[in-house]
Design a protein that fits this description.
By secondary structure, this protein is an alpha/beta fold. The chain has helices at residues 2-19, 23-33, 39-63, 68-74, 81-88, 103-113, 128-139, 151-157, 194-202; strands at 75-77, 93-96, 118-122, 144-147, 164-167, 180-184, 187-191, 205-215, 218-228.
Length: 237
Amino acid sequence: MRALYAFSTFLYLLAFYVVKHRHQVIREQIEKVFPESSDAERAAIQKRFLKNFCDVLVEVLKSVSMTDADMRAHVRIVNLELARSHLIAGQSVMLVTSHLCNWEWLLHGVTLQLGYPVDAAYKPLHDQWAERLMLGIRSRFGARLVAAKDLLTDFLRRRTIVRAVAMNADQAPVSTDQRYWTRFLGQDTAFYIGAEQIARATRLPILYAAMRRTRRGFMKSSSSHCGMGESALRPMR
């Protein structure tokens, strides 16, 4: 892990100072969200973003060789009794999250610690080699990957199986006309509505999983109720 994080630091320095990875786009977005911040404060936010991004890259690579015990040691899921209270009663749940911290390790942590099957929605990649690689990484601890467009059909077909349905759909919905608009971080922002539609159709209780780094290489996640078949598109604080 030390060698990988040293490599991550090298990638960060390369991305910020040499390649200037999406430099202008990131700066414009930060300026829109934090108009009152100084240039130095915005630069600090950009650096923290890139550092986390590079850490996530090497952590995904490391997950290929990590054991169950390794992953449990690095990812701690708290408040799982909230989800289990529904699952024990025979009711499946929907887990929603965001692309914050390390969302890949969040899936592994939940899969290993929940004690019930986990079906995770994903968007298939066009490159077949990359598709097989990511499916292998994301499913190696037991998660079952389902293409997002097939998620509702798949859930109804297997509705007798009590499980958690995981969704991470906070990207910009550029490929569909169906979207929900709201003010988010001071901006008019469009969200996917798939999670809400599936929750309403299936009456699944929705839990939001938040993940934070406690220190480099170690994560902690907790969950909270969003509602029963309600919109998961709530402002997050």
